[in-house]
């Protein structure tokens, strides 16, 4: 019984890593769809969200069953608690990739992103990819140091977000209100994506160290 | 033991209702702070979020303890599962009230919301208040019909959101990009607030009826 329990826990962890990779891939595709006005790719991302939602339902149910059947205490209880929160963050990251894809779809065949801010979104896409790859590593290896490195990329995302607003508010923004709305919402989607990645990493750190407060991480 | 368990479950439910009322009150105050450029009220909302976060932590822990200690099955398992998700939605609604308050604070002593769209935000505030009051009723009484009525107000919020974009994109929007950014983000905060309220109601319906799909509700 006990071994079966730990196998189930390990398998849930593997599924979380897989889910992180899936939403990372979704955000990468969404960024490409956005920058290339590639509507077929945008549709792929949108259609793929069903799989992410199903993964969340399944994983959450497995966590709750494990809690109810095995009566874990202490570390095990905390591990399963953390897993249910991580799976919620990851699902939300999938939603945000879909939001990006939907903006690309809505403006097709035009580009939603004007040339001036294209480099910012290209970079935001790269940072998002790195963040989610690091998040997967943090989950897979319970790697507290990798979690710390993730915060640096989150800071970078915040910088990109501020840079975006500077572009929008510069005197020579020539693209009007509609493009400004798109860019504002897109900026928010990338920022939230990064926030959730950091949130996952922090939960793992909390799990490993037992400390909610991480003085050196915020 | 069994009676104690049901008392704990009932008390968790009471706390969820209380939390719904708290985030509803936060959003009402945030709307007033926004429309009156009332920075003291905005600060109250921002400071109050700590209490909402603490309520989430506490309630979630109580749910997990109940799962781990009482090994519930069937309806009880579903009830506790739903409670952990509801508490996450409610906490997020509190965050969104804070986001609204922060926009009011950022633009103080100016008004963040131009006169043209003021009626829309006034109405969005009212709809948000009704939504959260209905949500509290749905949780308190496991009232499936009230949950259905909630969807109508969610539709109204979507209409207000579209009306907001029409105002932003009308030829005579005279307030420039910065106000457009504020209004875009504010619109999204109210829309997400409504989404989470509906999400809570749907979970309660799922709990009562055991049906994830509600043909007459979407």
TrEMBL record, chains A, B:
Keywords: Cytoplasm, Phosphate transport, Transport
One CC-aspect GO term: cytoplasm
Domain PhoU per the UniProt entry, residue ranges: 16-103, 123-204
Keyword Ion transport attributed: no
Record localization: Cytoplasm
Biological processes per GO annotation: intracellular phosphate ion homeostasis; negative regulation of phosphate metabolic process; phosphate ion transport
One Pfam match: PhoU
Protein's UniProt keywords contain Transport: yes
Major localization listed first in the record, in broad terms: cytoplasm
Subunit text: Homodimer.
PANTHER family registered for this protein in UniProt: PHOSPHATE-SPECIFIC TRANSPORT SYSTEM ACCESSORY PROTEIN PHOU
Protein family per UniProt: Belongs to the PhoU family.
Function field: Plays a role in the regulation of phosphate uptake.
Name assigned to this protein: Phosphate-specific transport system accessory protein PhoU
The species this protein was found in: Petropleomorpha daqingensis
């Amino acid at each position: 019984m006990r071994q079966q329990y730990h196998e189930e826990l390990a398998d849930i962890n593997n599924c979380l890593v897989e889910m992180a990779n899936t939403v990372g891939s979704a955000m990468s595709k969404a960024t490409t769809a956005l920058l290339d006005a590639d509507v077929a790719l945008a549709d792929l991302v949108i259609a793929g969200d069903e799989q992410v939602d199903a993964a969340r339902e399944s994983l959450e149910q497995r966590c709750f069953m494990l809690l109810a059947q095995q009566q874990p205490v202490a570390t095990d209880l905390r591990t399963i608690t953390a897993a249910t929160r991580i799976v919620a963050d990851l699902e939300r990251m999938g939603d945000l990739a879909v939001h990006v894809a939907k903006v690309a779809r809505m403006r097709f065949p035009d580009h939603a992103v004007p040339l001036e801010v294209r480099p910012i979104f290209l970079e935001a896409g790269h940072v998002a990819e790195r963040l989610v790859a690091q998040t997967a590593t943090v989950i897979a290896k319970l790697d507290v140091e990798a979690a710390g490195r993730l915060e640096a990329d989150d800071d970078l995302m915040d910088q990109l977000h501020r840079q975006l607003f500077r572009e929008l508010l510069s005197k020579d923004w020539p693209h009007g209100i509609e493009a400004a709305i798109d860019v504002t919402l897109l900026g928010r989607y990338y920022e939230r994506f990064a926030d959730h990645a950091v949130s996952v990493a922090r939960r793992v750190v909390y799990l490993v160290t037992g400390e909610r407060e991480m003085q050196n991480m915020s």
